[in-house]
Backbone:
């Protein structure tokens, strides 16, 4: 019998599930994927003082997604594509496990998820950074 109560992890998982479901829909549309990548990159730049090194990670993941969507970088495995897209969707959600307007803590859950995805996709991110360096002479930052 359910008590109707849900732990904090249940709420976090619910938001992550929502982000992954949206990611699946977004990646089926080139224009939606480019739109998400562009907005996430802008938001990462805008919040760079609050995100610290996470801002560079957000921007690189946004570039990676944008390059995939435009066909410039087709070498992205499906699992990495969904992980990155889901993380950026979550980053863009203002009301998630810890709502972003809460100044001191609002981006903490976003950074935790981005860090997890960064570690999980490290090999693919490294491959992308090497490709990007060859293409534009830009390591993509971090």
Residues:
């Amino acid at each position: 019998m359910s008590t109707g109560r849900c732990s904090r992890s249940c709420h976090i998982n619910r938001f992550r599930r929502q982000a992954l479901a949206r990611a699946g829909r977004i990646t089926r549309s080139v224009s939606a994927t480019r739109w998400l990548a562009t907005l996430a990159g802008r938001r990462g730049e805008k919040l760079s003082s609050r995100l610290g090194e996470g801002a560079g990670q957000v921007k690189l993941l946004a570039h990676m997604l944008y390059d995939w969507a435009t066909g410039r970088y087709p070498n992205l495995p499906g699992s990495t594509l969904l992980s990155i897209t889901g993380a950026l969707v979550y980053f863009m959600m203002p009301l998630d496990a810890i709502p972003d307007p809460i100044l001191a803590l609002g981006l903490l859950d976003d950074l935790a998820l981005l860090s997890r995805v960064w570690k999980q996709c490290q090999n693919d991110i490294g491959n992308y950074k090497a490709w990007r360096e060859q293409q534009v002479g830009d390591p993509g930052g971090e």
Observations:
- Residues 8-134 form one domain.
- The first helix runs from residue 8 to 26.
- DSSP finds seven helices and no strands in the chain.
- The radius of gyration is 15 Å.
